[in-house]
Amino acid sequence: MWGFLKPQRRGTLNLFSLYRTHVFCFDAVFYVRRTTQHQWRCDDVTFYCDNLGLCQHWIQTINDQLATQTNRPKSLLVYINPYGGKRDGKHIYDQKVAPLFCRACIATDVIVTERANHARDHLKTEANLDQYDGVVSVGGDGMFNEILHGLVARTQSEHGIDANRPDAHLAPCSLRIGIIPAGSTDCICFATVGTNDPVTSALHIIVGDSQPMDVSSVHHNDTFLRYSVSLLGYGFYADIQTDSERQRWLGPARYDLSGVKTFLSHNYYEGTVSFVTADDNVGDPRDKEQCRAGCRVCQRKTSLREPRHDDPSHAGKVNETWTDIHGKFIAINAANMSCACPRSPQGLSPAAHLADGTADLILVRKCSRLDFFKHLLRHTNKEDQVAPCQSFSARGTSPSPLAALAPPSR
Ligand SMILES: Nc1ncnc2c1ncn2[C@@H]1O[C@H](COP(=O)(O)OP(=O)(O)OP(=O)(O)O)[C@@H](O)[C@H]1O
């Protein structure tokens, strides 16, 4: 007879394991409990039984059910950036994440990076990727980007795709990337999971959650520069980023200092932005629902986009009509995702989809400091982020001053 009894002994149990006493067999089942603000926690239920055979049968049945879930990772390659955010990436991983991976029987190879681009270079050339189900980034957005670059570059070189061609269709990576937030803004984690919480992210990885993401490639004069999954910024945000790197010793507070400095300098840039509007775009920048795992728009778009990287004749799009906008701009932003983070819970483009094959182009023309301040202030609240600025869904830009955005591919 199964029943919930007061536990006689609680121990560190494997995800599904059997503990025996002389009187009862008992088995603790660990599960994910959803709490508030998109946070997940690990909880357990203990079942008791006085029939050992029945208990074993029950455990076997659960394990058989779990074995059918092939999306759960069994082996992961973990990169920890000990240098990002408040420099506590290693501590976060050891204290909050490793015990959960261990409990879920996930084997891990852990590399603590020793320099910038260590993870990228290791993934590009050395790592034996066949033995892993995924790669985990413990760090911030910069660390995620390193891993993205390593994995995407490796995949393209294995498929013989020339990444310097802006019209090349990139081959999708077979490995997934998990993010354990341990950086300063952790925008990519926040925009995909809804919170910056290492335990929640670890549990998403354990249960095999996944979300496709658009990747934009940035080129200059037919030379590949970099990939981007979040914000591609020219002007205001790029200036903050450049300046904040010089203040890294300040930790996450460096963004505040650089933000104020850049705002006060009130720089603007004159040039022409060219873009192609998305033809079958179903979303609108003012849509109320935020894109999350399982989004129907992204699922539909992903299924419509056939991978065509093996057919050179399909490279590039024909009949694209380019629109030019000339002017003086304070900020030129292409958002591949909402770019939400704790300071901007809605993000720069709240309704941007993670995998619909488009980027939201946000142009902020030269205006007074006061008007620009009002625009920035909206990022911190939940009100309409786009009015009265114009916002476009675009799939490309022309050369200078913005590097071209190739059609995003997964
Ligand atoms: N061992 C290391 N020493 C120095 N720099 C490193 C090391 N490992 C990684 N890096 C670099 O540190 C940079 C910043 O890391 P990360 O993104 O993790 O933190 P952050 O910049 O504080 O957070 P965020 O990007 O979310 O603002 C990355 O661009 C990465 O290339």
UniProtKB/TrEMBL annotation:
Residues 398-410 have a biased composition (Low complexity). One of its GO terms (biological process) is ceramide metabolic process. Residues 388-410 are annotated as: Disordered. This is Ceramide kinase. It comes from the Eukaryota. InterPro entries: ATP-NAD_kinase_N (IPR017438), CERK_C (IPR045363), CERK_PH (IPR057465), Diacylglycerol_kinase_cat_dom (IPR001206), Lipid_Phosphate_FormReg (IPR050187), NAD/diacylglycerol_kinase_sf (IPR016064). It holds the Pfam family CERK_C. One of its GO terms (cellular component) is membrane. Residues 71-222 form the DAGKc domain. Residues 388-397 have a biased composition (Polar residues). One of its GO terms (molecular function) is ceramide kinase activity.
